[in-house]
Design goal:
Blueprint (H helix, E strand, L loop, with lengths): L5 H21 L5 H9 L14 H11 L11 E6 L2 H8 L7 H6 L2 E8 L6 H4 L13 H25 L3 E5 L4 H8 L5 E10 L15 H4 L4
Antiparallel strand pairs: 1-2, 2-4, 3-4
């Protein structure tokens, strides 16, 4: 493993600081419409228009997602994009009946999974020092870290898809063991959740469900 020298670390740190200052000069916050698009007025969708999602757009979504923070830059999430009829039929084996038409009708269904061997990539992802010993042989810590951070990355993925003009519909109503056996046998991957992506048919929407207010769930101490 090649650990960066103090001089190299100082150079990349200075470049990062300057880049952040430049960002804040160009854009200090999203406007109200941008916030509405990615969260405030965004909706979960269950029906889809017959509009394809290109590989270039999937790549763009991933490249945005990959910039989101994870603990120690572990980046454990993996993304399997199921587009083909054959792939959807394999995925349908794991779904609760109500979710089958949602997946079969979506242009693409992403399986957001996590790699339990993520820690072996730390020399690349966290080059400041070798931190593989934090995880080696620690199964519970590996699982907790991978699940927590892949869930974060799955949320970034949903926001990224909305940011580039697509709609999303996350699904947890499925059998993870079946998905893992069907798609990730003999690998170190485990499924977390599913997410349909595409251009939604808004005619299937119902009213947005209630949310808690600040005073209900927040405390400042």
């Amino acid at each position: 493993m090649n650990v960066m020298s103090d001089q190299e670390q100082a150079a990349v740190r200075a470049a990062a600081q300057e880049g952040f200052r430049d960002l804040k000069t160009r854009l200090s916050e999203l406007d109200a419409d941008g916030i509405d698009l990615i969260l405030r007025d965004a909706r979960s969708h269950y029906a889809w228009k017959d509009t394809p999602v290109s590989d270039d757009l999937l790549r763009q979504i991933y490249e945005i997602t990959a910039q989101g923070p994870t603990s120690m830059n572990t980046c454990p999430a993996r993304f399997t994009f199921v587009r083909s009829q054959a792939g959807k039929e394999r995925l349908a084996k794991a779904l609760k009946p109500a979710n089958v038409p949602k997946v079969m009708g979506a242009p693409v269904t992403a399986i957001i999974s996590y790699d339990t061997a993520f820690w072996t990539h730390l020399p690349f992802l966290f080059p400041h020092e070798d931190r593989r010993h934090f995880f080696e042989g620690k199964t519970a810590h590996i699982e907790d870290t991978a699940f927590r951070n892949s869930t974060l990355q799955g949320a970034y993925f949903m926001i990224a898809a909305r940011a580039v003009g697509l709609d999303v519909g996350a699904i947890s109503g499925f059998d993870n063991a079946i998905v893992d056996a069907e798609f990730f046998a003999d690998t170190s991957f485990k499924s977390n959740f599913l997410c349909n992506i595409g251009h939604a048919d808004e005619n299937a929407l119902f009213q947005k469900l209630p949310r808690f207010g600040f005073e209900d769930v927040c405390e400042v101490i």
